[in-house]
Amino acid sequence: MSERVRTLRVVGPESTRRDSLASSLNDCEGFTAAAGRASAVAGSLGDTDAVIILDNPPESDGVETYTDIRSDGSNLPVVLVADDIRPDRLETALSVGVTEYVAWEEPETDTGELAARIRAYLENPVLDGRVEARRWRTIIGALAHEMKNPLNVGAGPLDLPDI
Asked: Rounded to an integer, what distance in angstroms lies between the CA atom of residue 50 and that of residue 138?
């Protein structure tokens, strides 16, 4: 039985770097990757399994693109990629909830590591803070509703027999 082919979207400004990353991911077994503009990704993910965003502010703000994707309600793994990871940028990205932030420098970096990370997130999704908070609100709301009837019965008047 063959492994399902996963669809990836590599987004960022038009560049040979973006196209090269998409091409490198296409060469990894089990993936098909398409390059696209960051401004067009939110709301058009369709069958996409994961999104890879080139982060190079101010030209390409991956955190802003991530926020746009999450505002549409998407729960996909979102990986930010930069050629040089600055600690302050890494902290900002992880604080807003991106799935992962990795270094990738064309053509020196082996794309196999990035592909392995994406496979792991697809097999065992790690939900970011926004998605997890939404899930907990749903669970807590359902529990509160389910507990309302037993609590109302218990709080009602008790008819005790006269002794």
From this structure: 24
Q: At 147, which helix (H) or strand (E)?
A: helix 129-155
pLDDT digits (tens, 9 = 90+) for 10-46: 888 888 888 888 998 988 888 889 888 877 776 678 8
Please state, as a whole number, how many other Cβ atoms lie within 10 Å of the Cβ of residue 69: 24
Partners of 82 in beta bridges: 103
For residue 11, what is the enclosing H or E element? strand 6-11
Residue 100 φ/ψ, nearest 5 degrees: -160, 155
Long-range pairs of 123-126 with CB within 8 A, sequence gap ≥ 24: 125/75, 125/77, 126/77, 126/99
Q: Is the pTM of this model over 0.90?
A: no
pLDDT tens profile 100-157: 898 887 766 678 888 888 888 888 766 555 566 666 677 777 777 676 666 566 555 5
What's the Cα-to-Cα distance from 113 to each of 62, 109, 116, 145, 161, rounded to whole Å?
20, 9, 5, 45, 73
